[in-house]
Amino acid sequence: GWLEKRKYTPIPLKENKFDIATIKKTDSLPFSYLIYAIANNQSLAKETVEEIAVTREILFITKDYVIFGKRKKIRHEHYI
Questions:
Q1: Higher model confidence: residue 1 or residue 65?
Q2: If we measure between CA atoms, which residue out of 39, 38, 42, 47 comes closest to residue 65?
Q3: Which residues make Cβ contacts (< 8 Å) with residue 30, sequence separation at least 6?
Q4: Alpha carbons 13 and 72: distance in angstroms, whole number
Q5: In whole angstroms, what is the distance from residue 6 CA to residue 32 CA?
Q6: pLDDT in tens, 12-50
Q7: What is the CA radius of gyration of the chain?
């Protein structure tokens, strides 16, 4: 069985606006996987996925979700 406790930490993004401040907060969770529920606004969803992918690998995509792996890169100053 699992020896560690599983933990779910919801990090809500703004629904209709690109939210870089909240996306940057995920950088403080380097060992966690991220699940992004794709926004209805396709341009917002694309921008959000691209920004998260700066630091994390995309592991799986469905029509409703994108699953990102653990943080692989540190966000550089020009991405902030």
A1: 65
A2: 38
A3: 70, 71
A4: 22
A5: 10
A6: 888 889 999 999 999 888 999 999 999 999 999 999 999
A7: 13
Identify the pLDDT of residue 79: 47
Q: How many CA atoms lie within 13 A of 18 on its CB side?
A: 12
C-alpha 75: how far from its chain's center? 13
The pLDDT assigned to 1 comes to 47
HEC assignment per residue over 25-63: HHHHCCCCCEEEECCCCHHHHHHHHHHHCCCEEEEEECC
pTM, to two decimals: 0.82
Q: Rounded to whole angstroms, how far apart are CA atoms 55 and 62? A: 20
